[in-house]
Amino acid sequence: MKIFLKNSLSFLLCLFLISQTHAQTFSAGVSISVAPPAMPVYVQPSCPVDGYLWSPGYWAYGPDGYYWVPGVWVAAPTPGYLWTPGYWGFVGGYYGWHSGYWGLHCGYYGGINYGFGYGGIGFVGGMWAGGVFRYNTAVMNVNTTIVHNTYVNRTVINNTTVNRTSFNGPGGITRQPNADERVAMNEQHVQATNDQMNHLHTASLDRNQLASVNHGAPRAAAMNRVGGTPFNGSGKQVQQGPRANNGNNGARTNPNAGNNNPKPQNQNKPQNQSRPQNQSKPQNQSRPQNQPKPANTNRPAGGQHPHPAGGHPAGGGGHEHHR
């Protein structure tokens, strides 16, 4: 009995130490046995507002599997804070998501190469100076007519072959946090902003973002801002598809939000087509039933039941694959 208890305590202690290796917690309920797809290659849209920071795209997981959350420019919660991206970690046969956070320094994000300043160690896309963010245009795409606080540091560019692996652990990226990253991991953090969470939710409603649909080449790879313009992997603007007709993914997440976009389309067309019919033909049909004598003399073959066009707008759009 003592040997059993001793072994059990040792096993639990081992699990605790493993969970503390990265000093971050798994997101609740997100622990699966299927690896996330490889990181897609895409073009970064130019920064739309001076002071916005880049939040890299990543694979999230929902009821219908992995889906791509586009990279996007966002405002920091407070000047001086940098974004540390989240990452997938593989431990004990399962993949778990470590949430990203804001802090004074960029911490550990699993060694994943997210690009655009996030090459796997730290952040080299810019820096804060005197309450103003300065962009390193060697790795960040900014419109210099809008953004004036820039500099160029090409020494940070990694010219080696890019590893597109999207998780940390056996079979993936095995780099562990260094001393500076460990310090940053234990600093005070601020979780993702409301804009970032809304951005995540919007991506979860679009079936075009599902890996099972786009086969690792998401239709909307990046956006210039939350709720802004989506771009594909080649940097070409694409239109957002309808949300409510995208199967069960959106309905499971938030039925109300899933119906926000298509409702005006579904209501406008049927109303324009059906209301005049409902006001004329249906009334003419009901009167003969209520007054059978006039119906037999005046409208013996009159009413045909109108069938208003009630079809939902077709969703979809082609799936574009880019390398």
Explain what you see.
The longest helix is centred in the C-terminal third of the chain and has 29 residues. This protein has one domain. A hairpin with a 2-residue loop joins β7 and β8. It contains 8 helices and 15 strands. A 4-stranded mixed β-sheet has the order 1-8-7-13, with no helix packed on it. A 4-stranded mixed β-sheet has the order 2-5-14-15, with no helix packed on it. The termini are far apart. The N terminus and C terminus are likely disordered. With 323 residues, it is an alpha+beta fold.
Labels describing this entry:
323 residues; 4-stranded mixed sheet; globular
Give the domain tally.
Answer: 1
Strand order across the biggest sheet? 1-8-7-13
Task: Give the overall silhouette.
Answer: globular
CA-CA gap between termini: 58 Å
> How helix-rich are the residues, as a percent range?
25-40%
The main pleated sheet reads as: 4 strands, mixed
Provide a count of the helices. Answer: 8
Overall number of strands: 15
Uncertain runs are 1-29, 244-323
Fraction of residues in β-strands = 15-25%
Element order, helices and strands?
HEEEEEEEEEEEEEHHHEEHHHH
Instruction: Using the CA coordinates, give the radius of gyration.
Output: 27 Å
Structural class: alpha+beta
**Average residue pLDDT:** 75
Short description:
With 323 residues, the protein is an alpha+beta fold. Helix content is 27%, strand content 18%.
